[in-house]
Amino acid sequence: MSFAISSAVRKSVPMLISLAGVSGSGKTYSALLLAAGLAGNGKVGFLDTENGRGSMYADSPGIQAALPQGYQIAEMREPFAPSRYTDAVMAFQDAGCRVLVIDSMTHEWEGYGGCSDIAENNKLRGMPNWAKAKTEHKRMMNHLLACQMHVVFCLRARDKVKIAKVMKDGREREEVIPIGLQPIQEKNFTFEMTLSLMLDEHTHRPTVTKCPEPLLSLFQGDQPLITKKMGENLRAWSEAAPAPKADPKALADQALAYAGQGTAAYQDFWKTLTGTQQKELLSRHEEFKELGRMADDRARRENGENEVAPSDLMAQI
What we know:
The chain is of the alpha/beta class and 317 residues long. The two termini are 29 Å apart. Helix 1 (27-39) crosses helix 7, helix 8 (248-259) packs antiparallel against helix 9 and helix 8 (248-259) runs parallel beside helix 11 (285-302). The protein is globular and about 55 Å long. Strands 1, 2, 3, 4, 5, 6, 7 and 8 form an 8-stranded mixed β-sheet that branches. It contains 11 helices and 8 strands. 35% of the residues are buried.
């Protein structure tokens, strides 16, 4: 395999941003203001998993001032499976939204039908099948990373502790160590973000938990409340670079990676492609489909399941 090596050039890519906090910390309101700045003249979408609470801000003076054209909303009820989040993101992208707010992303991890339920409901030798749950979560994350919109995720947070071994009176003992507020999501979720913020319960001010070095200048010292202007600054930074050019080899490598995760992952990936991109891959389409089938068989063997006839999923691609 050969590698094309060239000078690094920053490219404009959509941003993934997480806002975490306890109930009442201002996540939804802050996310809408941030989205207003990120969108510019584009449309803002809102995926509501909180029983219609996202609509409560439609007539808020602050949100109306920031988003005079309003925002598009869709409600998602249980089950909160990763694949349903993927479908919802695609629906907003197809609707032409430039930014999507998802409130809440925590449901995907521990809501009814989310990853915790998937692990419990597909036990392997009596133990929760986290391999299956995390595979579905990873498939969704790969889709989000390929999304063409900016996405702002609202995450619930709670105080967490860890058990650590410490020496006391010459003896090793286990001790409960508080580690503070942590987002309720898969442990690596916030590290996939471009920017991660934790909102204070009382002041609603953000604390930066992850920020790339080029953006640090926007988050120096004590942070003010999140505003539309903050979103505008993030958009200006994001758009300061030219959009990435189409790369046929990179597209094929991406298709190969999705096919390696199985039929459903490759099917989801195929749906995100434009007609031109699908034509680029057409000569290897059958190859990728077969790789997806092989990955399905491998996953079934690892999960102790019986071999089954090939799924009808590939016929839909």
